[in-house]
Specification:
The chain is 45% helix and 15% strand. It is of the alpha/beta class. The chain is globular.
């Protein structure tokens, strides 16, 4: 059964999966969503004996129905290879009564690698399928991790160029160093004077500029996205939730059909939406626990039914979640609005014009699968410290937000089901914040001294991604104002 993709803002004109991947964003500014959520065609028991790549194929073939078996298997084989430092790709580590799903064993030590190692292959395959002759320009805003993972994925991929915008003072020193040292003749990195929401808004405006699109086409270019607004990013993320469950099943940690809870540190809402889609497919997930940092716009939304970005933007030690406009939430809003594009569009226009929208009580009842809470900066640091002292296991700041919220959930509900916590980044990515949480004395050390100390106390080898940037030269020192993003893109493309 073919699955087609509709825009969340317009009725009609569905497109094939490859077309949705190529476009990234619909012409009307909406996001592409599948016209239905497919059910598994293999039992969980059958999936439990498969490798990560095999599970990826069984999940992704159900969504990307216009890809041949050969095309899809080829994309998967190229993605989940020696770029990952473990053959299992996404290991589960048990610590203090929860299972941490380590999603940071790829080239850039963050969960974005799980999808961004395959997206370039999905995109170039889609281009061939649709006889695209233009060069594809990947345009991306990042709050820290997507940028580097996208750059690594697309560097020197034929027929593509990639431009990444990031908030100049809104990412960790390691994240910035990873981006500005990126090699590849087709890569371009720009720090903007502004925050992540400014970068994301600027990128969306460029995507929505019809005159620019026509001019680009004339010059032999077309835009696509590597952000989680691209369905080619979201579908691969569903895979690791399925994989985590079937591995628990294989190890006898759960019985077939037994429900688990999933905790996800959440900013742009893509990662937890992938878990929601996995649940809709039939994966036995009970609660989807949405963990926010002090930018708790999602917590307030789940509490009240009002989404309101009119608030102070807080810079935290979990910068990848420093977001007030959670783009992927739109896909969920569309669904709980009964797949009504007009109703969703009105809410999104209210968000654009007034900075807020309110869902109906009927829509709110459909959010019963979700539990939202948040962790303060102090609680995040305490969570890192406590878990390390108790178990010797070190987690990064984003994972700590999730672990803290999970403790709050258990206290509030008494629910002790088997639980998977999405561990979204290596502690090496946020070394200073992690080490300071363990002991304030470490804050006096230099960035790479801290790296070595972290390795010593955690007994985990320094990842290749960190070793590579110790002495790497800065190759990108571009900075622009948030109002100059379009001109910056055109300058880089030489048009």
């Amino acid at each position: 059964m073919e699955i087609l993709y509709n825009s969340t803002r317009t009725k009609g004109n569905p497109v094939k999966a490859s077309e949705a991947i190529l476009k990234g964003l619909s012409d009307d500014g909406g996001l592409f969503v599948p016209d239905r959520i497919p059910a598994f065609d293999k039992t969980l028991e059958e999936l439990s004996h498969m490798s990560y790549g095999q599970v990826a194929y069984e999940v992704m073939k159900l969504y990307l129905t216009d890809f041949t078996e050969e095309e899809l298997k080829n994309c998967i084989a190229k993605a989940y290879d020696s770029k990952f430092d473990t053959e299992v790709i996404a290991p589960l580590v048990e610590a203090d009564g929860a299972f941490y799903l380590e999603l940071f064993h790829g080239a850039t030590i963050a969960f974005k690698d799980m999808a961004l190692s395959i997206l370039p292959h999905l995109l170039t395959t889609s281009a061939k399928k649709n006889n695209v002759k233009n060069e594809i320009v990947i345009l991306t805003a990042t709050s820290g991790d997507t940028g580097k993972a996208a750059l690594a994925g697309f560097a020197d991929v034929e027929g593509t160029r990639i431009i990444v915008f990031y908030p100049k003072n809104g990412v960790s020193p390691i994240q910035e160093k990873q981006m500005v040292t990126q090699k590849g003749d087709n890569t371009f990195v720009v720090g903007i004077h502004g925050n992540f929401d400014d970068a994301q808004t600027g990128v969306k405006q460029i995507f929505g500029d019809k005159e620019l699109a026509a001019y680009m086409d004339e010059k032999g270019f077309q835009f696509s996205s590597a952000n989680s607004i691209n369905i080619g990013r979201l579908v691969p993320q569903i895979v690791y939730y399925v994989y985590s469950y079937v591995k628990l099943l294989e190890e006898g940690r759960v019985s077939d059909g037994e429900k688990i809870n999933v905790v996800v540190p959440t900013g742009n809402f893509g990662n937890i939406l992938a878990a929601f889609y996995a649940k809709q497919m039939g994966l036995p997930i009970d609660k989807l626990i949405c963990a926010s940092n002090e930018n708790k716009v999602l917590f307030d939304f789940f509490e009240s039914g009002t989404y309101d970005r009119n608030r102070e933007f807080v810079l935290t030690t979990s910068p990848s979640m420093d977001i007030l406009i959670s783009s992927n939430l739109e896909r969920l809003i569309y669904r709980i609005a009964g797949n009504d594009a007009d109703k969703n569009k009105a809410l999104m226009e209210s968000l654009k014009d007034n900075g807020s929208y309110v869902i109906t009580d009927e829509m709110k009842t459909q959010l019963a699968d979700f539990y939202g809470n948040y962790a303060s900066e102090e609680e995040t640091a305490q969570t890192i410290s406590k878990l390390y002292e108790k178990t010797g296991y070190l987690i990064d700041t984003h994972t700590a937000v999730a672990a803290c919220v999970y403790e709050k959930y258990k206290k509030a509900t008494g629910d002790n089901k088997t639980t998977v916590i999405a561990s979204t980044a290596s502690p090496y990515k946020f070394t200073r914040s992690v080490m300071k949480a363990v002991d304030e004395k470490y804050d006096t050390m230099g960035d790479f001294e801290l790296v070595d100390k972290l390795s010593e106390i955690s007994k985990v080898e320094v990842p290749k991604a960190i070793e590579e940037i110790r002495t790497a030269p800065v190759l990108h020192d571009n900075i622009c104002d948030k109002t100059e993003m379009k001109q910056t893109v055109m300058k880089f493309l030489g048009i």
